[in-house]
TrEMBL record:
It comes from the Bacteria. This is SatD family (SatD). It comes from Sunxiuqinia elliptica.
Length: 216
């Protein structure tokens, strides 16, 4: 058995955004060899242009990849179809970890445990108005992560575009001075945005997530 992580995602209210502007955001899925989200050789399933699923054997990185997705979309504003202005974009993210007998070559046709867990949780999120969830095969850990993700949901909801932008870079391993140079900001300004985005809490959740992985 091999442990993998599956991230299922869909864009919230994608139909309200101007199509051209919305489609430009989806380049996060392109050029996987040079992409933080999708590494070279990892399978990806995209559907309808506003939902997708990825699989990775790098399970210890999977929580931060899910946070990366949140930051990637939250840092953008898109034009609305009604022409009344701009609106922030958001995505539901369902991260599941589990074991598989074999690594599937076509993730759209597998019923292995982590794919089922991730997809099922994503469907339930729509009813519960959640936007972020972590699921494992262990019910006790799932209860813990349900509470943790409720706090994360609140945190992500209140990110400003500026805060999401620094997290987008930070989660990829950029240092504060590098982020400042990329955004044309001072290092203290970057540091302030990181604090306001509660990066320290995200780091603590990641530490706990990796600890749980070692026990599954």
């Amino acid at each position: 058995m091999r442990k993998i992580a599956v991230i299922s995602a869909d864009i919230i209210n994608s139909s309200k955004f101007e199509e051209a502007a919305f489609l430009n955001t989806m380049h996060v899925l392109e050029e996987p060899a040079a992409n933080y989200l999708v590494r070279k050789g990892e399978p990806l399933l995209a559907s309808r242009g506003d939902s997708f699923q990825i699989m990775t054997e790098e399970v210890e990185d999977s929580f931060l990849r899910a946070v990366y997705l949140k930051a990637y979309f939250k840092r953008m504003e898109l034009g609305l179809k009604d022409g009344e202005g701009q609106a922030s974009i958001d995505a539901r993210i369902s991260l599941a970890v589990g074991s598989v007998q074999n690594i599937p070559s076509n993730i759209g046709k597998t019923m292995e445990e982590p794919f089922v867990l991730s997809g099922r949780a994503l469907d339930q999120m729509k009813q519960k108005k959640q936007t972020f969830i972590i699921t494992t095969p262990n019910d006790n850990y799932n209860q813990e992560f349900a509470l943790t993700c409720a706090f994360l949901d609140h945190l992500f909801k209140h990110w400003t575009l500026a805060q999401a932008e620094v997290i987008y870079y930070l989660v990829q391993g950029y240092k504060q001075i590098e982020i400042a140079e990329s955004l044309g900001l001072s290092q203290p300004s970057v540091s302030n945005r990181i604090q306001l985005a509660n990066w320290s809490l995200i780091e603590k959740v990641n530490t706990r997530f990796i600890d749980v992985l070692s026990k599954l």
